[in-house]
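Hi R.,

Here are the chain sequences for the assembly we discussed:
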Amino acid sequence: METILPKFDSVFSIDCVIFGFDEGELKILLIERNVEPFKDWWALPGYLVEQEESLDNAAERILYELTGLKGIYMDQFYTFGDVNRHPQGRVITVGYYAMIRLSGNKDLKPAPITNYAKRAVWTPLGDLPKLAFDHDKIFGRAFDKIRNKISYQPIAFELLPEKFTLTQLQHLYEVILNKKLDKRNFRKKMLNYGILKELDEKQKGVSYRAAKLYKFDKRKYARLFQKELSFGK
Amino acid sequence: METILPKFDSVFSIDCVIFGFDEGELKILLIERNVEPFKDWWALPGYLVEQEESLDNAAERILYELTGLKGIYMDQFYTFGDVNRHPQGRVITVGYYAMIRLSGNKDLKPAPITNYAKRAVWTPLGDLPKLAFDHDKIFGRAFDKIRNKISYQPIAFELLPEKFTLTQLQHLYEVILNKKLDKRNFRKKMLNYGILKELDEKQKGVSYRAAKLYKFDKRKYARLFQKELSFGK
DNA sequence: AATATAGTGTGTATTTTTTACACTAAGTAA
DNA sequence: TTACTTAGTGTAAAAAATACACACTATATT
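And here is the predicted structure of the full complex:
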Protein backbone atom coordinates (compact mmCIF):
# COMPACT_ATOMS: atom_id res chain seq x y z
CA MET A 1 0.00 0.00 0.00
CA GLU A 2 1.26 3.40 -0.85
CA THR A 3 0.29 6.94 -0.07
CA ILE A 4 0.81 9.51 -2.74
CA LEU A 5 1.36 12.97 -1.41
CA PRO A 6 -0.98 15.49 -2.91
CA LYS A 7 0.59 18.00 -5.23
CA PHE A 8 1.20 21.25 -3.56
CA ASP A 9 2.32 24.79 -3.88
CA SER A 10 3.65 25.47 -0.46
CA VAL A 11 1.26 27.81 1.21
CA PHE A 12 3.04 28.37 4.36
CA SER A 13 4.51 31.64 5.27
CA ILE A 14 6.87 33.25 7.71
CA ASP A 15 6.17 36.32 9.76
CA CYS A 16 8.96 38.15 11.50
CA VAL A 17 8.82 40.18 14.68
CA ILE A 18 12.01 42.18 14.87
CA PHE A 19 12.61 44.09 18.05
CA GLY A 20 14.83 47.11 18.29
CA PHE A 21 15.53 49.65 21.01
CA ASP A 22 16.06 53.27 20.18
CA GLU A 23 15.64 56.56 21.98
CA GLY A 24 14.56 54.69 25.05
CA GLU A 25 11.73 52.96 23.26
CA LEU A 26 11.11 49.41 22.18
CA LYS A 27 10.20 49.23 18.53
CA ILE A 28 9.30 46.63 15.98
CA LEU A 29 9.83 46.65 12.30
CA LEU A 30 6.67 46.98 10.23
CA ILE A 31 6.11 47.15 6.52
CA GLU A 32 3.50 49.10 4.69
CA ARG A 33 1.86 46.65 2.33
CA ASN A 34 1.71 47.46 -1.34
CA VAL A 35 -0.53 44.63 -2.46
CA GLU A 36 -3.94 43.20 -1.70
CA PRO A 37 -5.22 41.99 0.63
CA PHE A 38 -4.68 44.63 3.25
CA LYS A 39 -3.03 46.94 0.73
CA ASP A 40 -1.74 50.06 2.49
CA TRP A 41 -2.04 48.44 5.90
CA TRP A 42 0.83 47.96 8.26
CA ALA A 43 1.97 44.41 8.77
CA LEU A 44 4.77 42.29 10.09
CA PRO A 45 7.35 41.50 7.42
CA GLY A 46 6.23 38.14 6.15
CA TYR A 47 5.81 36.17 2.97
CA LEU A 48 5.40 32.72 1.51
CA VAL A 49 8.07 30.07 1.90
CA GLU A 50 9.55 28.79 -1.33
CA GLN A 51 9.45 25.20 -2.39
CA GLU A 52 13.14 24.60 -1.97
CA GLU A 53 14.14 26.49 1.10
CA SER A 54 14.15 25.65 4.79
CA LEU A 55 12.11 27.68 7.19
CA ASP A 56 15.14 29.32 8.72
CA ASN A 57 16.46 30.33 5.33
CA ALA A 58 13.07 31.55 4.25
CA ALA A 59 12.84 33.73 7.31
CA GLU A 60 16.16 35.34 6.57
CA ARG A 61 15.38 35.85 2.89
CA ILE A 62 11.93 37.27 3.47
CA LEU A 63 13.12 39.70 6.07
CA TYR A 64 15.77 40.89 3.67
CA GLU A 65 13.45 41.27 0.73
CA LEU A 66 10.83 43.19 2.61
CA THR A 67 12.97 45.35 4.82
CA GLY A 68 16.51 45.29 3.51
CA LEU A 69 17.77 43.83 6.78
CA LYS A 70 20.39 41.28 5.94
CA GLY A 71 21.68 38.18 7.69
CA ILE A 72 19.56 38.38 10.80
CA TYR A 73 19.37 35.21 12.82
CA MET A 74 15.88 34.62 14.13
CA ASP A 75 14.24 32.10 16.40
CA GLN A 76 10.88 30.47 15.94
CA PHE A 77 8.33 31.14 18.60
CA TYR A 78 5.00 29.81 17.41
CA THR A 79 3.11 28.59 14.38
CA PHE A 80 -0.30 30.02 13.61
CA GLY A 81 -2.76 27.88 11.76
CA ASP A 82 -6.28 29.11 12.25
CA VAL A 83 -8.39 28.26 9.27
CA ASN A 84 -9.47 31.78 8.45
CA ARG A 85 -6.42 33.74 9.28
CA HIS A 86 -5.85 34.63 5.63
CA PRO A 87 -8.77 35.89 3.55
CA GLN A 88 -7.64 34.17 0.37
CA GLY A 89 -7.15 30.68 1.59
CA ARG A 90 -5.47 28.50 4.08
CA VAL A 91 -2.08 29.85 5.05
CA ILE A 92 -0.14 28.55 7.97
CA THR A 93 2.51 30.93 9.20
CA VAL A 94 5.55 30.32 11.32
CA GLY A 95 6.43 33.16 13.66
CA TYR A 96 10.07 34.14 14.00
CA TYR A 97 11.54 36.81 16.22
CA ALA A 98 14.86 38.53 16.73
CA MET A 99 16.24 41.28 18.88
CA ILE A 100 18.70 43.42 17.04
CA ARG A 101 20.96 46.38 17.46
CA LEU A 102 19.18 49.22 15.81
CA SER A 103 22.15 51.53 15.28
CA GLY A 104 23.15 51.41 11.64
CA ASN A 105 19.88 49.75 10.72
CA LYS A 106 17.79 52.82 11.09
CA ASP A 107 17.27 53.52 7.45
CA LEU A 108 15.66 50.62 5.79
CA LYS A 109 14.49 50.00 2.29
CA PRO A 110 12.83 46.92 1.01
CA ALA A 111 15.14 45.19 -1.43
CA PRO A 112 13.98 46.09 -4.92
CA ILE A 113 13.22 42.47 -5.65
CA THR A 114 9.53 42.61 -4.94
CA ASN A 115 6.96 45.35 -4.81
CA TYR A 116 5.27 43.76 -1.91
CA ALA A 117 6.21 46.40 0.63
CA LYS A 118 6.25 50.13 0.12
CA ARG A 119 8.58 50.74 2.99
CA ALA A 120 9.75 49.36 6.30
CA VAL A 121 9.55 51.46 9.43
CA TRP A 122 10.62 51.04 13.01
CA THR A 123 7.49 51.58 15.04
CA PRO A 124 7.39 52.14 18.80
CA LEU A 125 5.25 49.60 20.60
CA GLY A 126 3.23 52.43 22.03
CA ASP A 127 2.20 53.62 18.56
CA LEU A 128 1.33 50.35 16.91
CA PRO A 129 -1.50 50.65 14.42
CA LYS A 130 -3.97 47.85 13.91
CA LEU A 131 -2.08 45.34 11.83
CA ALA A 132 -3.06 43.28 8.81
CA PHE A 133 -4.29 39.68 9.12
CA ASP A 134 -3.82 38.28 12.62
CA HIS A 135 -0.53 40.08 13.03
CA ASP A 136 -1.62 41.73 16.27
CA LYS A 137 -1.92 38.31 17.77
CA ILE A 138 1.40 37.18 16.34
CA PHE A 139 3.12 40.25 17.68
CA GLY A 140 1.52 39.68 21.08
CA ARG A 141 2.89 36.23 21.33
CA ALA A 142 6.36 37.33 20.32
CA PHE A 143 6.30 40.02 22.96
CA ASP A 144 5.18 37.52 25.60
CA LYS A 145 8.04 35.35 24.52
CA ILE A 146 10.76 37.92 25.00
CA ARG A 147 9.23 39.24 28.21
CA ASN A 148 9.22 35.77 29.58
CA LYS A 149 12.65 34.86 28.31
CA ILE A 150 14.38 37.93 29.61
CA SER A 151 13.26 37.14 33.11
CA TYR A 152 15.49 34.09 33.22
CA GLN A 153 18.11 34.84 30.57
CA PRO A 154 19.86 38.13 29.95
CA ILE A 155 19.10 38.29 26.25
CA ALA A 156 18.63 42.01 26.02
CA PHE A 157 22.19 42.90 25.04
CA GLU A 158 21.42 42.25 21.43
CA LEU A 159 19.24 45.32 21.48
CA LEU A 160 21.84 47.75 22.75
CA PRO A 161 24.70 49.44 20.97
CA GLU A 162 28.01 47.65 21.32
CA LYS A 163 29.03 49.87 24.19
CA PHE A 164 26.38 50.75 26.69
CA THR A 165 25.96 51.96 30.25
CA LEU A 166 24.33 50.02 33.01
CA THR A 167 21.60 52.60 33.20
CA GLN A 168 20.76 52.07 29.56
CA LEU A 169 20.60 48.36 30.14
CA GLN A 170 18.35 48.87 33.10
CA HIS A 171 16.02 51.13 31.14
CA LEU A 172 15.72 48.46 28.51
CA TYR A 173 14.76 45.88 31.09
CA GLU A 174 12.25 48.25 32.56
CA VAL A 175 10.66 48.84 29.20
CA ILE A 176 10.39 45.16 28.38
CA LEU A 177 9.18 44.11 31.80
CA ASN A 178 7.07 47.20 32.22
CA LYS A 179 8.14 47.89 35.77
CA LYS A 180 10.75 49.84 37.65
CA LEU A 181 13.78 48.01 38.92
CA ASP A 182 16.06 48.91 41.80
CA LYS A 183 19.32 50.37 40.60
CA ARG A 184 21.65 48.80 43.12
CA ASN A 185 20.11 45.37 42.92
CA PHE A 186 20.03 45.47 39.16
CA ARG A 187 23.70 46.32 38.93
CA LYS A 188 24.68 43.71 41.44
CA LYS A 189 22.83 41.05 39.55
CA MET A 190 24.08 41.99 36.09
CA LEU A 191 27.68 42.31 37.18
CA ASN A 192 27.45 39.00 39.03
CA TYR A 193 26.56 37.14 35.88
CA GLY A 194 30.12 37.91 34.83
CA ILE A 195 29.14 38.51 31.23
CA LEU A 196 29.90 42.21 31.11
CA LYS A 197 33.30 43.69 30.36
CA GLU A 198 33.89 47.05 31.94
CA LEU A 199 35.62 49.37 29.48
CA ASP A 200 38.15 52.13 30.12
CA GLU A 201 35.82 54.49 28.47
CA LYS A 202 33.00 56.79 29.38
CA GLN A 203 29.83 58.03 27.86
CA LYS A 204 30.22 61.19 25.84
CA GLY A 205 28.03 64.14 25.03
CA VAL A 206 25.93 64.15 28.14
CA SER A 207 25.50 67.23 30.26
CA TYR A 208 26.01 65.45 33.52
CA ARG A 209 28.47 63.02 34.99
CA ALA A 210 29.36 60.49 32.31
CA ALA A 211 28.75 56.83 33.03
CA LYS A 212 31.14 53.96 32.46
CA LEU A 213 30.68 51.96 29.31
CA TYR A 214 30.38 48.19 29.21
CA LYS A 215 30.56 45.55 26.55
CA PHE A 216 28.74 42.26 26.44
CA ASP A 217 31.01 39.20 26.58
CA LYS A 218 29.51 36.68 24.18
CA ARG A 219 31.80 33.83 25.08
CA LYS A 220 31.09 33.94 28.77
CA TYR A 221 27.43 34.30 28.03
CA ALA A 222 27.42 31.19 25.89
CA ARG A 223 29.30 29.23 28.51
CA LEU A 224 26.87 30.30 31.20
CA PHE A 225 23.58 29.83 29.42
CA GLN A 226 24.02 26.74 27.38
CA LYS A 227 24.13 24.91 30.67
CA GLU A 228 20.91 23.41 31.84
CA LEU A 229 18.67 25.41 34.09
CA SER A 230 19.16 23.87 37.46
CA PHE A 231 16.73 22.08 39.65
CA GLY A 232 19.38 21.45 42.25
CA LYS A 233 20.13 18.20 44.00
CA MET B 1 -2.26 45.26 -7.73
CA GLU B 2 -3.35 41.92 -6.43
CA THR B 3 -1.68 38.75 -5.35
CA ILE B 4 -3.42 35.51 -6.09
CA LEU B 5 -2.60 32.78 -3.68
CA PRO B 6 -1.43 29.65 -5.40
CA LYS B 7 -3.81 26.71 -5.23
CA PHE B 8 -2.82 24.28 -2.64
CA ASP B 9 -3.48 20.96 -1.04
CA SER B 10 -2.28 21.62 2.43
CA VAL B 11 0.89 19.72 2.88
CA PHE B 12 1.58 20.47 6.39
CA SER B 13 1.39 17.85 9.02
CA ILE B 14 1.32 17.41 12.74
CA ASP B 15 3.53 15.09 14.72
CA CYS B 16 2.70 14.28 18.30
CA VAL B 17 5.04 13.39 21.11
CA ILE B 18 2.94 11.94 23.89
CA PHE B 19 4.72 11.25 27.13
CA GLY B 20 3.51 8.75 29.67
CA PHE B 21 4.99 7.32 32.84
CA ASP B 22 4.51 3.71 33.74
CA GLU B 23 6.35 1.15 35.80
CA GLY B 24 8.87 3.78 36.72
CA GLU B 25 9.72 4.50 33.11
CA LEU B 26 9.09 7.42 30.82
CA LYS B 27 7.47 6.30 27.61
CA ILE B 28 6.26 7.82 24.41
CA LEU B 29 3.54 6.67 22.14
CA LEU B 30 4.71 5.32 18.79
CA ILE B 31 2.83 3.89 15.87
CA GLU B 32 3.92 1.16 13.57
CA ARG B 33 3.40 2.50 10.08
CA ASN B 34 1.31 0.53 7.67
CA VAL B 35 1.98 2.57 4.54
CA GLU B 36 4.90 3.73 2.48
CA PRO B 37 7.20 5.49 2.93
CA PHE B 38 8.76 3.91 5.97
CA LYS B 39 6.18 1.14 5.97
CA ASP B 40 6.68 -1.07 9.04
CA TRP B 41 8.85 1.52 10.72
CA TRP B 42 8.09 3.07 14.06
CA ALA B 43 7.11 6.70 13.98
CA LEU B 44 5.51 9.44 15.99
CA PRO B 45 1.78 9.64 15.48
CA GLY B 46 1.42 12.24 12.79
CA TYR B 47 -0.49 13.02 9.64
CA LEU B 48 -1.52 15.74 7.26
CA VAL B 49 -3.63 18.65 8.36
CA GLU B 50 -6.95 18.99 6.59
CA GLN B 51 -7.98 22.00 4.62
CA GLU B 52 -10.61 23.16 7.05
CA GLU B 53 -9.23 22.48 10.46
CA SER B 54 -7.03 24.45 12.80
CA LEU B 55 -3.68 23.08 13.88
CA ASP B 56 -4.86 22.39 17.39
CA ASN B 57 -7.89 20.51 16.15
CA ALA B 58 -5.81 18.62 13.64
CA ALA B 59 -3.46 17.53 16.37
CA GLU B 60 -6.28 16.16 18.43
CA ARG B 61 -7.93 14.41 15.52
CA ILE B 62 -4.74 12.86 14.21
CA LEU B 63 -3.74 11.55 17.58
CA TYR B 64 -7.14 9.97 17.94
CA GLU B 65 -7.15 8.39 14.51
CA LEU B 66 -3.73 6.90 14.80
CA THR B 67 -3.72 5.81 18.41
CA GLY B 68 -7.28 5.85 19.69
CA LEU B 69 -6.36 8.44 22.33
CA LYS B 70 -9.23 10.87 22.58
CA GLY B 71 -9.51 14.50 23.61
CA ILE B 72 -5.88 15.07 24.54
CA TYR B 73 -4.84 18.69 24.82
CA MET B 74 -1.39 19.25 23.36
CA ASP B 75 0.99 22.16 23.14
CA GLN B 76 3.08 23.16 20.18
CA PHE B 77 6.80 23.08 20.68
CA TYR B 78 8.46 23.55 17.30
CA THR B 79 7.86 23.49 13.57
CA PHE B 80 10.15 21.50 11.36
CA GLY B 81 10.63 22.60 7.81
CA ASP B 82 13.79 21.20 6.33
CA VAL B 83 13.43 20.79 2.62
CA ASN B 84 14.16 17.10 2.49
CA ARG B 85 12.57 15.89 5.64
CA HIS B 86 9.96 13.93 3.71
CA PRO B 87 11.05 11.73 0.80
CA GLN B 88 7.96 12.45 -1.28
CA GLY B 89 7.91 16.18 -1.22
CA ARG B 90 7.93 19.23 0.87
CA VAL B 91 6.12 18.67 4.13
CA ILE B 92 6.30 21.07 7.01
CA THR B 93 5.34 19.55 10.29
CA VAL B 94 4.26 21.17 13.51
CA GLY B 95 5.40 19.35 16.63
CA TYR B 96 2.93 18.98 19.48
CA TYR B 97 3.51 17.36 22.82
CA ALA B 98 1.49 16.30 25.82
CA MET B 99 2.11 14.57 29.09
CA ILE B 100 -0.69 12.25 30.04
CA ARG B 101 -1.82 9.86 32.69
CA LEU B 102 -1.14 6.46 31.32
CA SER B 103 -3.45 4.45 33.55
CA GLY B 104 -6.54 3.50 31.57
CA ASN B 105 -4.79 4.39 28.33
CA LYS B 106 -2.57 1.38 28.28
CA ASP B 107 -4.36 -0.51 25.58
CA LEU B 108 -4.53 1.52 22.47
CA LYS B 109 -5.91 0.81 19.06
CA PRO B 110 -5.80 3.12 16.11
CA ALA B 111 -9.32 4.23 15.30
CA PRO B 112 -10.53 2.09 12.40
CA ILE B 113 -10.85 5.18 10.22
CA THR B 114 -7.55 4.84 8.46
CA ASN B 115 -5.19 2.00 7.85
CA TYR B 116 -2.24 4.24 8.30
CA ALA B 117 -1.04 2.70 11.53
CA LYS B 118 -0.94 -0.97 12.40
CA ARG B 119 -0.83 -0.30 16.10
CA ALA B 120 0.18 2.18 18.72
CA VAL B 121 2.54 1.19 21.48
CA TRP B 122 3.92 2.87 24.56
CA THR B 123 7.67 2.65 24.19
CA PRO B 124 10.16 3.33 26.97
CA LEU B 125 12.62 6.05 26.09
CA GLY B 126 15.42 3.62 26.74
CA ASP B 127 14.19 1.27 24.02
CA LEU B 128 13.42 3.71 21.26
CA PRO B 129 14.08 2.27 17.83
CA LYS B 130 15.30 4.42 15.00
CA LEU B 131 12.25 6.34 13.91
CA ALA B 132 10.85 7.19 10.49
CA PHE B 133 11.55 10.52 8.78
CA ASP B 134 13.23 13.02 11.11
CA HIS B 135 11.17 11.87 14.04
CA ASP B 136 14.25 11.23 16.15
CA LYS B 137 15.00 14.90 15.94
CA ILE B 138 11.42 15.87 16.66
CA PHE B 139 11.31 13.64 19.68
CA GLY B 140 14.61 15.08 20.90
CA ARG B 141 13.29 18.57 20.82
CA ALA B 142 10.14 17.60 22.64
CA PHE B 143 12.16 15.92 25.32
CA ASP B 144 14.37 18.99 25.69
CA LYS B 145 11.23 21.03 26.03
CA ILE B 146 9.75 19.07 28.90
CA ARG B 147 13.09 18.71 30.63
CA ASN B 148 13.53 22.42 30.49
CA LYS B 149 9.99 23.24 31.44
CA ILE B 150 9.83 20.97 34.43
CA SER B 151 12.78 22.73 35.97
CA TYR B 152 10.75 25.87 36.44
CA GLN B 153 7.17 24.62 36.44
CA PRO B 154 5.83 21.53 38.16
CA ILE B 155 4.12 20.09 35.11
CA ALA B 156 4.81 16.47 35.86
CA PHE B 157 1.57 15.73 37.70
CA GLU B 158 -0.19 15.09 34.46
CA LEU B 159 1.90 11.98 34.10
CA LEU B 160 0.99 10.40 37.40
CA PRO B 161 -2.12 8.58 38.48
CA GLU B 162 -4.68 10.76 40.20
CA LYS B 163 -3.42 9.72 43.60
CA PHE B 164 0.29 9.39 44.02
CA THR B 165 3.00 9.34 46.64
CA LEU B 166 5.75 11.89 46.94
CA THR B 167 8.28 9.21 46.23
CA GLN B 168 6.59 8.43 42.92
CA LEU B 169 6.63 12.08 42.05
CA GLN B 170 10.29 12.31 42.91
CA HIS B 171 11.13 9.27 40.79
CA LEU B 172 9.39 10.89 37.88
CA TYR B 173 11.42 14.05 38.26
CA GLU B 174 14.56 12.00 38.51
CA VAL B 175 13.76 10.17 35.33
CA ILE B 176 13.01 13.33 33.39
CA LEU B 177 15.95 15.30 34.71
CA ASN B 178 18.24 12.29 34.69
CA LYS B 179 19.70 12.93 38.12
CA LYS B 180 19.10 11.98 41.71
CA LEU B 181 17.33 14.47 43.91
CA ASP B 182 17.47 14.84 47.65
CA LYS B 183 14.37 13.45 49.33
CA ARG B 184 13.96 16.02 52.05
CA ASN B 185 14.60 19.00 49.84
CA PHE B 186 12.35 17.66 47.15
CA ARG B 187 9.46 17.19 49.56
CA LYS B 188 9.96 20.56 51.12
CA LYS B 189 9.89 22.26 47.76
CA MET B 190 6.89 20.41 46.40
CA LEU B 191 4.82 20.88 49.52
CA ASN B 192 5.76 24.55 49.63
CA TYR B 193 4.24 25.16 46.23
CA GLY B 194 0.95 24.51 47.96
CA ILE B 195 -0.48 22.68 45.01
CA LEU B 196 -0.69 19.24 46.59
CA LYS B 197 -3.61 18.00 48.66
CA GLU B 198 -2.69 15.43 51.25
CA LEU B 199 -5.27 12.66 51.31
CA ASP B 200 -6.49 10.55 54.23
CA GLU B 201 -5.44 7.54 52.35
CA LYS B 202 -2.42 5.33 51.96
CA GLN B 203 -0.81 3.34 49.28
CA LYS B 204 -2.02 -0.27 49.10
CA GLY B 205 -0.53 -3.54 48.08
CA VAL B 206 3.06 -2.80 48.92
CA SER B 207 5.12 -5.09 51.08
CA TYR B 208 6.53 -2.33 53.21
CA ARG B 209 5.33 0.74 55.01
CA ALA B 210 2.63 2.37 52.90
CA ALA B 211 3.12 5.97 51.91
CA LYS B 212 0.58 8.77 52.10
CA LEU B 213 -1.24 9.60 48.93
CA TYR B 214 -1.52 13.07 47.46
CA LYS B 215 -3.65 14.72 44.84
CA PHE B 216 -2.71 17.54 42.57
CA ASP B 217 -4.74 20.74 43.12
CA LYS B 218 -5.39 22.14 39.66
CA ARG B 219 -6.95 25.39 40.80
CA LYS B 220 -4.08 26.39 43.02
CA TYR B 221 -1.66 25.39 40.33
CA ALA B 222 -3.37 27.61 37.79
CA ARG B 223 -3.42 30.53 40.17
CA LEU B 224 0.26 30.09 40.93
CA PHE B 225 1.63 29.59 37.46
CA GLN B 226 -0.33 31.92 35.29
CA LYS B 227 1.46 34.69 37.12
CA GLU B 228 4.50 36.12 35.51
CA LEU B 229 7.90 34.73 36.32
CA SER B 230 9.47 37.31 38.53
CA PHE B 231 12.48 39.41 38.03
CA GLY B 232 12.01 41.18 41.33
CA LYS B 233 12.03 44.87 41.95
C1' DA C 1 33.94 81.60 40.73
C1' DA C 2 29.83 79.97 42.58
C1' DT C 3 25.75 77.45 42.13
C1' DA C 4 22.18 74.53 40.21
C1' DT C 5 21.18 70.33 37.86
C1' DA C 6 20.97 65.64 36.63
C1' DG C 7 22.45 61.26 36.55
C1' DT C 8 26.38 58.04 38.54
C1' DG C 9 27.85 54.90 41.77
C1' DT C 10 28.01 52.57 46.01
C1' DG C 11 26.96 49.13 51.02
C1' DT C 12 24.50 46.82 54.42
C1' DA C 13 21.05 44.49 56.88
C1' DT C 14 17.09 41.38 56.27
C1' DT C 15 14.55 37.86 54.28
C1' DT C 16 14.00 34.06 51.36
C1' DT C 17 15.60 30.21 48.95
C1' DT C 18 18.68 26.56 48.22
C1' DT C 19 21.66 23.17 49.66
C1' DA C 20 23.77 19.51 52.48
C1' DC C 21 23.17 15.88 55.36
C1' DA C 22 21.36 10.88 58.62
C1' DC C 23 18.46 8.71 61.52
C1' DT C 24 13.98 6.81 63.45
C1' DA C 25 9.25 5.05 62.39
C1' DA C 26 6.07 1.98 60.29
C1' DG C 27 4.55 -1.77 57.98
C1' DT C 28 5.34 -6.50 55.77
C1' DA C 29 7.38 -11.06 55.36
C1' DA C 30 9.58 -14.77 57.17
C1' DT D 1 10.64 -11.85 67.03
C1' DT D 2 13.39 -10.45 63.81
C1' DA D 3 14.87 -8.87 59.42
C1' DC D 4 13.85 -6.02 55.72
C1' DT D 5 12.34 -2.12 53.07
C1' DT D 6 10.67 2.23 52.34
C1' DA D 7 8.41 6.47 54.69
C1' DG D 8 9.04 10.45 56.92
C1' DT D 9 11.32 14.16 59.28
C1' DG D 10 14.78 18.97 60.95
C1' DT D 11 18.47 21.95 61.16
C1' DA D 12 22.40 24.54 60.03
C1' DA D 13 24.95 26.90 56.42
C1' DA D 14 25.32 29.19 52.14
C1' DA D 15 23.56 31.74 48.46
C1' DA D 16 20.34 34.76 46.35
C1' DA D 17 16.90 38.32 46.51
C1' DT D 18 15.13 42.35 48.49
C1' DA D 19 14.73 46.96 50.65
C1' DC D 20 16.62 51.14 51.18
C1' DA D 21 19.49 56.66 50.79
C1' DC D 22 23.14 59.59 50.10
C1' DA D 23 27.53 61.52 48.44
C1' DC D 24 29.99 62.18 43.98
C1' DT D 25 30.96 64.25 39.45
C1' DA D 26 30.51 66.44 35.18
C1' DT D 27 28.33 70.00 32.85
C1' DA D 28 25.54 74.23 32.21
C1' DT D 29 24.17 78.61 34.03
C1' DT D 30 24.76 82.86 36.27
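Residues 165-167, 183-184, 187, 206-212, 232-233 of chain A lie near DNA strand C (CB under 10 Å from a C1'). Chain A touches chain B through 58 residues (CB under 8 Å).

Let me know if anything looks off.

Best,
T.
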